[in-house]
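Objective 1b of the project was to move from sequence-level analysis to a structural picture of ligand recognition. The entry below was assembled by the postdoctoral researcher (A.K.) and checked by the PI before modelling. It contains the amino acid sequence of the target and the SMILES of the bound compound, flavin-adenine dinucleotide.
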Amino acid sequence: MSDASTATATTATSEPARALAAVPRAGWHVATVAATRRETANAARLELEVDGWPGNAAGQHLDLRLTAPDGYTATRSYSIASSGSGTRVVLAVDRLPDGEVSPFLVNEVRVGDRLEVHGPLGAFFVWRPVDHGALRSAGDGAGGAASALRARPVQLIAGGSGIVPLFAMATAHAEARDLTPFRMLYSVRTPDDLFFAEELMALAATSDDFRLDLVYTRRTPDGWPNPAGRVTREALEGAVLPATERPIVYVCGSTGFVERVASWLIELGHDARDIRTERFGGI
Amino acid sequence: MSFITRGFSGRSHERDERLPPGQTLVHDFPVLSAGPTPEIDTAEWEFSITTETGGVHSWNWQQFMALPIDEVDTDIHCVTHWSKLGTSWRGISLDTLFENVETQYDYVMAHSYGGYTTNLALDDLLDGKAWIAFEFDGEPLDPEHGGPARLLVPHLYFWKSAKWVRGLVMMGEDEPGFWEQNGYHLHGDPWKEERYW
Amino acid sequence: MQHVDGNAIAGPLAEFFAFDITTAVARCNGCGFVAELARAMVYTSPAGSVLRCASCEQVLATLVESDDRAWFGFSGVSAIEVRRR
Ligand SMILES: Cc1cc2nc3c(=O)[nH]c(=O)nc-3n(C[C@H](O)[C@H](O)[C@H](O)COP(=O)(O)OP(=O)(O)OC[C@H]3O[C@@H](n4cnc5c(N)ncnc54)[C@H](O)[C@@H]3O)c2cc1C
Ligand SMILES: [Zn+2]
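Corresponding predicted holo structure:
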């Protein structure tokens, strides 16, 4: 299967150019593990204190490099669940059964351990709060057009650990008291596999501009209206902002999940240019 | 800045004297590839050798399978520092395929379904050094591993063993293939650690 | 492992360029598709990473890394557009 954008016209330049504005410069940093906790039975949350971290936008990732005593190194990318100017960086890692790095991060890493990280990375898959003051005063002209685009609603679609960068966006949205309508569709195996469960429920309960829809693929909570099962095209159509509202859509999860969702979004009339994807790999 | 990560050893990395310098042992077979996996039906599959005169020697799957088959037990060495020992393959020797090929040229460009290319010296393909392999560990070669057929040149780094091979084109001079244009060594001998330019 | 997004190789590329080049727009030599490199498909093979056009799958660029060097090839890109502001 090829990328979703195959289905559309021959150009796909960026929508709001300003969304790609400069982000802090990437560099290698030493991170010290400040806190760890079980996120789910199969995943851990790592809070890192990163010396010299320049801050990051919501949605960015970092590369983490582990070095064995014999000099062997393994590098993997992890999305950042936090954003802003601080030096605290939160990761959430799902353990793959025969993985090389993720079981180490989930089971082995302890408070005080030092890790090498490179970041912040990826200025494309980011969301930034809208400057509503600027939006009102900008009036017409190019700046006005760009701001108008940025005020478009946002649809977040996560599969499994793909929630991490989208959680950062939802949190940044709430913290900035941003008025952009946000809607999130989060697909997980069972209620026990939810990442950031409390935080997401709190966001959904307290914010009028954030709506959360959950899909359980293996087991639902008692009394859940829908049976367990993968996200289908119909479910997607029912739970995401319609193409007519021209949302910016962020999709993140395993490669297979992202491919399926992105191709359905195109079929449902969303413009490929409005869809931003972050594939985590796997099938 | 690099420092050792407490508690991290990575996947087991055994040493063995059959390993070339800088290599460690693996038991699985990494399947990462540079593009989508081409799905080629053996009914459509064709393999050809093209010479400087434009002469083409080609085999369809049936003709190919009628050639004498070699059993090959060999070690393979990937440029990314892993080696796998004692792998078993079945394939057709390049000596057999070149039997009736007349050429003055000394170099070969291997072309694959999916567009990949890699360059080789003819000397590295003849005298029992290379095969077009279609079976691995007693099973037909998976598309992920290069099936229906891949080049097998085990004495060179494994990127030279082009997956999904479809033909060889003779060349008067050694010209770089896909990875060789982008950083890799023209020859790729693991015992000399010919990894990069 | 299947492909990921161009965005995912922002890390190694940050060692070459003073800005995040995955946000730059490039034109595919094969089909003329114009998009941010972040939208390209990244295949990670043992030899290196290959960026392919999201529209026609042709190779746009390659990234090879050794311990002490790296190579970035732009063989399938006709031009790269970089934003000044
Ligand atoms: C930009 C980016 C951001 C990422 N962010 C996160 C994150 O926030 N949290 C997180 O947990 N992971 C994230 N990942 C995935 C992460 O980088 C690793 O791929 C993952 O942790 C597996 O590494 P490993 O060494 O344990 O497995 P490996 O040893 O590399 O692989 C083990 C097996 O799992 C398969 N596999 C590899 N990746 C996946 C996958 N994502 N899903 C299913 N199977 C897979 C492989 O094909 C292999 O068979 C991200 C990936 C990218 C590209
Ligand atoms: Zn193209």
